[in-house]
Amino acid sequence: QVQLVESGGGSVQAGGSLTLSCTASGYNYNPYCMGWFRQAPGKEREGVATRDSFANAIYSDSVKGRFTMSSDNAKKILFLQMNGLKPEDTAVYYCAAKSLCSGNLYNYWGQGTQVTVSS
Known about the structure:
Oligomer: single chain
Number of helices: 0
Strand content: over 45%
Largest sheet: 7 strands, mixed
């Protein structure tokens, strides 16, 4: 059974930093088949950091230059380093993984971790 468990969320002031972690189990871990998403209250879920078909990291325009996705393959942990946080970054952040890396569907989702940024 695949489990993705996010951690590292919290409350910070604008300009601060957080690092989210996603620990995977029961999954044939491949960071190039994983990504980070977020959902703010009243808004649709959006991709924050994903991979294109060439395994290049793709960041949403709103976080480009501030967020960085990385991985510890030995420990099967996906990270999202978030710097220069803004109030508009407030959301529940989710880690997700694909069972078919070449496809577009993220089959597995974590439970989410709350990030709150105050001005």
